[in-house]
Automatic annotation (TrEMBL):
Domain of life: Bacteria
Organism: Spirosoma fluviale
Name of the featured protein: histidine kinase
Length: 323
């Protein structure tokens, strides 16, 4: 007989449309599979902060035992999270930050460091001289804000690197970017705030015959076809800044909090520059992790099978003894 979960975790996810978020979710599910007394319910807000606030409120009403939130926007989602926390529910903030310190723990990489890494590596790629452009997506999210701040801060150290400005990704990027590059022919590097965006930029530069001239840096560094590592390996971008999704770590933290074990309040995940020199090592590591995960899954199924056989044999013995 299956044990009934003792704890319910509510997971408020700002969106789920890309592989980075899917990777986060897979990581959570994998880790959760080790804890049969924990169950998780996810609500996805599709990039709508108001909807996310309502979903957080629903979790509070449901009285979940712990709430994990990957908030859409920094300010817009702060008060609903505060309320959840003040109602006594432990809250883990995952990936994006809010503008308050009313949470139990944070799990994620520092986006300011991501931006700094991008700035330092931009200088390396340009050999200390050139003009750079930044492209971001959502002005009110903490990654967008901090990836920008870290980048411009790092560039201040390099007097011969000129910061041209920031443009915003939208459906018209295939028009706005060529127009910008035409008006600013001195651009020699573009820092795109995530790899999916960097791929679009790479294709636009390619179609303008500028890919050789313009270096490209993305962020995320996922494994998989057309994800960051693959793009670096194929030379479609020059580097990506690793930004781990942290699903496993969030669940590990949740388990410690719920079972009253010691836990860390700030869990800063590792970030680094991935370029053609180290992309092979990264890919090999991911491959190894994938193989280990598959073997864990196989063993888990085997254990489940064994326990099924055991319980049916126990029943059979019971029947025999009753005769
Ligand atoms: C995925 C994503 C990632 C990015 C993260 C920041 O939804 O856009 O590409 O690194 O969110 O929160």
């Amino acid at each position: 007989q299956k044990e009934k979960p003792k704890y319910t975790i509510g997971f408020s996810q700002c969106m789920m449309s890309d592989n980075w978020r899917k990777d986060m979710y897979q990581g959570m599910k994998r880790e959760l599979s080790f804890y049969p007394d924990m169950s998780m319910e996810m609500k996805v807000a599709n990039g709508d902060s108001k909807k996310q606030n309502e979903q957080i409120q629903e979790f509070v009403t449901q009285k979940v035992d712990l709430l994990i939130v990957s908030p859409n926007e920094k300010d817009a989602n702060t008060s609903s999270i505060n309320q959840a926390y003040l109602s006594g529910i432990p809250v883990i903030i995952l990936d994006r930050r809010i503008s308050s310190t009313k949470y139990t723990a944070f799990v994620g990489a520092e986006n300011y460091l991501v931006g700094q890494n991008a700035g330092i590596y931009a200088n390396t790629l340009l050999k200390g001289h050139g003009t750079v452009l930044e492209i971001s997506a959502a002005p009110n999210t903490s990654p967008s804000i901090d990836r920008h701040l870290g980048f411009v801060q790092a560039l201040k150290k390099y007097p011969a690197i000129t910061y041209s400005g920031i443009i915003w990704q939208n459906d018209q990027l295939d028009q706005t970017l060529p127009a910008y590059l035409k008006a600013h022919p001195q651009i020699e590097l573009i820092y795109a705030h995530y790899d999916r965006l960097a791929l679009i930029v790479s294709e636009i530069c390619q179609s303008l015959g500028l890919r050789k001239k313009i270096k490209l840096i993305g962020v995320d560094g996922l494994a998989g076809k057309n994800e960051g590592l693959d793009l670096v390996k194929k030379g479609l971008i020059d580097a990506t800044i690793l930004y781990p999704a942290g699903g496993e770590e969030a669940i590990k933290n949740a388990v410690s909090i719920l079972t009253k074990k010691p836990f860390k309040r700030e869990n800063k995940l590792f970030t680094t520059v991935i370029n053609p020199d180290n992309v092979g090592i990264m890919l090999a590591q991911y491959q190894k992790i994938r193989e280990q995960q598959q073997s864990i899954e196989r063993q888990t199924y085997k254990l489940l099978d064994l326990s099924r056989i055991y319980s049916s044999q126990k029943k059979a013995v019971g029947v025999l003894l009753a005769l």
